[in-house]
Design brief:
heterodimer; A: two-stranded antiparallel sheet; 10 helices; B: Immunoglobulin-like; four-stranded antiparallel sheet
């Protein structure tokens, strides 16, 4: 059951890693998030060095996102035009993020910044989503109509120039918000080692006001390319991609993601968002506890020089 | 590496002359090459040997044995956390250089009962006496705290091991020590050293090499990752694409 990871230089239980890939892939397919925010802590908890965990699990997200995006494409759930806008911003953002990452790494504060941003981002986004979805579910139960129509609302976003029509999303908005959103998520990708779906999905729903049915596919479409770029970047700059570990995660992931897409399509939008919100808040709480509780050993050791 | 060569020379010079009077020490490892294969989960090796009394060895002495396995030298970054505004933050860091990547020590009795502290330090016996430097201007006692923390962590990982009763005598002269090698052991050149102590001083010593190396597939993957890293990263992405597509095709609703 054990298999040796040649780059990580340790052995792992392959059935365990396969199931971790499948479980995270399932959630990924269900919610349209890459699952990096779950996979990284899981792998580190299992004993994989954090650098290897962050870089290697990007392949898992690539594979899950490709299967997911293809499945969504068939049900017309991908706004490729919007995806490309987000991607363009994303590549710029991740280049900047890599730079920040290197500085933080030299200062020895990367761990704190990563965990801190997880807590802040996951906590606030999860809280917002939970609040919104509970209200939506309550409204649906009491028989009241859905939340105020989105079409009539004209926020500051609609005043921006360079408007483009996104037909799949039924939107006519400026390209600036998608570019900025993509860039912000790109920074997160580089620093936090996540695809950024958990930021992207709510932002697309609440900021860009895209319809829920194209949000997941478009997010997966964009994540697919960002994580592919990240994998190559990590492989060349710090040799932290373990292809054997990636293989196990990918195989588990592609099975999980398909099942997740199937289950996800059975659930209603607000139920899906409530479940994702609970998951996100739980991860944030778990990480917060880790930050404030006294560690077993106040010293930590990393192989090599920073 | 260099210090180890000097050390070996020092040993041989020390004992070439004295060996005639002392008992002879013969020791060997059950293997001198550990291959890391895909199902490698760590392994046990055995160091066995015998003390052969010489004719003019005189009356029975207070004899002790110490077995040490030292791994390749590595650098480690050690950080210490402090609580700031309720959150645990890395505050101080140092880099320890020349620490062994693996260190195993077994003896017949606790080290302090066998030899003086000076002797222990001279032969670098015990994790408390490891040779290592530290980068960055830190006070010696501070550095010692960081080194102790690193040793503590390595012991938790079973990469450092001290067993004061780890040498087993099979007869009056025949002995063996079982050495546990965990899966996370760093590949490289190791040395197995055996010391025979008589009345608190080293009477005889022997040193032999041990190689830990990745076997075919594992080594190729590792080499690709470092020497052809762009192609390696690209291959990882292609693999992800291939499986992602296969997953989609297999599970497609018909």
């Amino acid at each position: 059951m054990e298999v040796y990871l040649p780059v990580a230089e340790l052995s792992v239980n392959w059935a365990m890693i396969l199931s971790m890939g499948a479980a995270v892939g399932f959630l990924s397919g269900m919610f349209g998030v890459g699952g990096g925010f779950l996979m990284t802590p899981l792998l580190v908890f299992y004993g994989i060095p954090p650098g290897i965990a962050v870089a290697t699990q990007a392949s898992h997200i690539t594979a899950s996102s490709l299967s997911g995006a293809l499945a969504q494409w068939r049900r017309q759930g991908v706004d490729a035009k919007m995806g490309l806008m987000l991607l363009a911003g994303g590549l710029v953002g991740s280049a900047g993020g890599v730079y920040v990452f290197r500085i933080l790494q030299e200062l020895g504060q990367i761990e704190l910044v990563v965990t801190g941003s997880y807590v802040l981002l996951l906590g606030s986004i999860g809280g917002l989503m939970l609040n919104e979805s509970i209200r939506a579910m309550r409204a649906a139960r009491t028989g009241a109509g859905p939340a105020p129509a989105k079409g009539g609302q004209h926020s500051w976003i609609h005043g921006l120039p360079f408007k483009v029509r996104f037909r799949r999303s039924k939107l006519y908005i400026s390209i600036i918000p998608p570019l900025i959103l993509g860039a912000l998520v790109g920074v997160l990708t580089a620093i936090m080692g996540v695809g950024g779906g958990f930021v992207m999905v709510p932002a697309m729903i609440y900021l860009l006001r895209m319809p829920t049915n194209v949000v997941i596919g478009t997010s997966q479409f964009q994540i697919l390319f960002v994580t592919a770029a990240t994998t190559v970047l990590h492989a060349t700059s710090d040799q932290t991609v373990d292809i054997v570990l990636a293989f196990l995660l990918v195989v588990g992931g592609v099975v999980g993601v398909q099942l997740g897409v199937r289950v996800g399509s059975q659930l209603r939008g607000e139920q899906l968002r409530a479940l994702l919100a609970i998951l996100v808040v739980a991860v944030a709480l778990r990480l917060l506890i880790g930050l404030v509780t006294t560690p077993n050993d106040i010293y930590s050791i990393v192989a090599g020089t920073p | 590496m260099r210090t180890r060569v000097i050390f070996a020379i020092m040993l041989s010079v020390l004992f070439a002359g004295g060996a005639a009077k002392a008992d002879d020490l013969v020791a060997g490892l059950s293997t001198d090459l550990i291959q890391i294969t895909s199902n490698f989960t760590g392994t046990d090796i055995v160091l066995f040997g015998a003390i052969e009394p010489t004719e003019d060895a005189g009356p029975a002495k207070d004899q002790d044995l110490v077995v040490v396995i030292r791994g390749p030298q590595v650098d480690m970054t050690v950080r210490r956390k402090a609580r700031i505004l309720g959150i645990w933050v890395n505050r101080v860091q140092t880099v320890l250089t020349g620490m062994p990547g693996y260190y195993f020590l077994a003896s017949t009795r606790p080290l302090d009962d066998i030899a003086s502290l000076a002797t222990q330090q001279r032969f670098r016996l015990g994790t408390a006496n490891l040779e290592s430097g530290a980068l960055g201007g830190m006070k010696p006692d501070e550095t010692a705290a960081f080194r102790a923390a690193a040793i503590r962590e390595r012991k938790r990982e079973h990469l450092y091991w001290e067993s004061p009763t780890g040498i087993e005598f099979l007869s009056r002269t025949l002995f063996r020590a079982r050495i546990a090698v965990p899966a996370s052991v760093p590949p490289g050149e190791y040395r197995a050293e055996v010391y025979l102590f008589q009345n608190g001083t080293v009477a005889s010593a022997q040193s032999s090499p041990l190689f830990i190396d990745k076997s075919g597939f594992e080594r190729r993957v590792y080499n690709y990752a470092y020497q052809a890293s762009f192609a390696y990263g690209f291959a990882a992405v292609l693999m992800a694409f291939a499986f992602g597509w296969v997953g989609f095709v297999l599970f497609r609703e018909r």
